[in-house]
Design goal:
Blueprint lengths: L1 H4 L6 H33 L4 H50 L2 H7 L1 H24 L3 H16 L5 H44 L1 H6 L3 H27 L1 H25 L5 H43 L21 E9 L5 E10 L4 E6 L5 H7 L8 E6 L2 E2 L5 H6 L1 E4 L8 E2 H5 L8 H10 L3 H5 L8 E2 L8 H14 L4 E5 L7 H14 L5 E5 L3 H4 L4 E6 L2 E6 L1 H7 L1 H11 L2 H7 L1
Parallel strand pairs: 3-10, 3-11, 6-9, 9-10
Antiparallel strand pairs: 1-2, 1-4, 4-5, 7-8, 11-12
Helix pairs in contact: 2-3, 2-6, 2-11, 3-5, 5-7, 5-11, 6-7, 6-11, 7-9, 7-10, 7-11, 10-11, 15-17, 20-21
Amino acid sequence: MSNLYKYLKKYKKHLILGPIFKLLEAVFELIVPVVMAKIIDVGIAEKDVHYILSMGGVLLLLAVVGLAAALFCQYVATVCSQGFGTEVRSVLFDHINSLSMNEMDKFGVSSMVTRFNSDINQMQLGVAMLIRLAIRAPFLVVGATISAIILKPSISWIFLVTAPLVAFVLYIIMSKTIPVYTKNQAKLDKITSIARENFSGIRVVRAFTEQEREQARFEKSTEDYAKSVIAIGRISALLNPLTFLIINLAIVAILYFGGLKINSSLMTQGELIAFVNYMTQISLALVVVANMVVLFSKSYASAKRVSELLATEPKVKDDGNTQVIPVENAPAISFKNVSFKYGNGGYALKNLTTDIYKGQTIGIIGGTGSGKSTIINLLPRFYDATEGEVLIDGVDIKKYPFSQLRQKIGLVPQQSMLFAGTIKSNMLWQKQDASDEEIYHALKIAQAYDFVESKKDKLDSVVQQKGKNFSGGQRQRLCIARAVVGKPEILILDDSMSALDFATDLALRRAINKDLPKDTTKIIISQRATSIKNADLIIVMDKGEAVGIGKHSELLKNCDVYREIYESQQKAPHEKEATK
């Protein structure tokens, strides 16, 4: 977890000053029993009102100064813990954005969200308590013990017996609970995942009336989490009773042996009260220590999870890459014996070799899971090919800086994703300085101009989170417009016209061919053969392999998979039956 300590370096002063002031408060607190003893043995015993009032003033002064020290420490702890949490959150957010899809797949969105929020909150609390209590509580225990020994060595053995017994109880509780906290956070990840899945897919859940099943699934996970927390709670619940039992027995021993000393005139009543006060201070401090153990156990488990995520290095990097100069007359895209597999699974793409030239329109078609989207994921380097090379403009894409590589590519993914803001703010993602004229030109190509113009605020119309205030087809067209605004050299449409009717689909394809620069390379993934049949080159995928590469007419003759797809889409099954 050393990768987290550096974020506390900025707060060295806070980490030093906070505990010092808390230590001052503890020192003043340790002086109180001595003053009380003097008031009893001198002021009350001799009925000296002036002495009682003067020493009462000392107690008041100790309380005021102690309060001021405690408030300053609280302020310092808040600044340090919140600043630390803010910095770690910022770094973690930046780090998550640097991870490749390999790491995103490994951790999962729900786990990363839990680490980003819940775990860092727990770490912040740990830092605050470290400053406020980590020194004060042990110091009070040690200080009260030493003060008691100095005050009356003859019965101070009670303190020396009590402290190790309480420490032993703390050790047993810690050893039982700490390993469980990490497992609990993983269970919390699962709960977050189920909740997130249900909230995102609420329409599907209701459409299939699966509320009860999903409720049962959620309850099963929460019950599992609850059982684990309750199990820890049962162990932790023993902490305070056992601690207080030991402390109260110690107080009984002090009263008994102290009473004997008082009867023998070897101890004063004030000293006995001071002893009881010191033992009370120890008991309260040990309760704080006990709670700190639980808190720091949770914080430690959370810190390990955050540290694990921060220590994860992305497999796909562009460290040290400099601006690439394209090779003249080279194909826009080249796949050279490219294979790819996700994790330790089988190959999702096998031995793809083909060249795509500038200005060409490429269609990719195939069944679900045939490897179509995998091809697209390799181009912007969301993943790196397991084997083989992918080249753009004659240069291996691994040599490109991400900024240059991805500026060349306009990608419209399968899932239409808009971000909260306005239509205009979404349109500026590909080109931040795009003019309204450029945006409207892109909207016209994407067949989105009419419905945007029909809105009261036009480009300033509000876009809700994920674009939920637009229909599926509208979202797809806005996503296409966003990719087109920057006039990318390579435009990729990953099954991004599935929500469009045939007329809009046709109009969109015509506009792309007519209004985009002639040297724009277009890659269209589609389930509809009609959407790609006029492409310059069609790649037919089946089980991760390119089983056919050619024009529509050639593939109808030579590729059984393509012919089957095409013919199945020409007539619906009931129409075929009617013609028999």
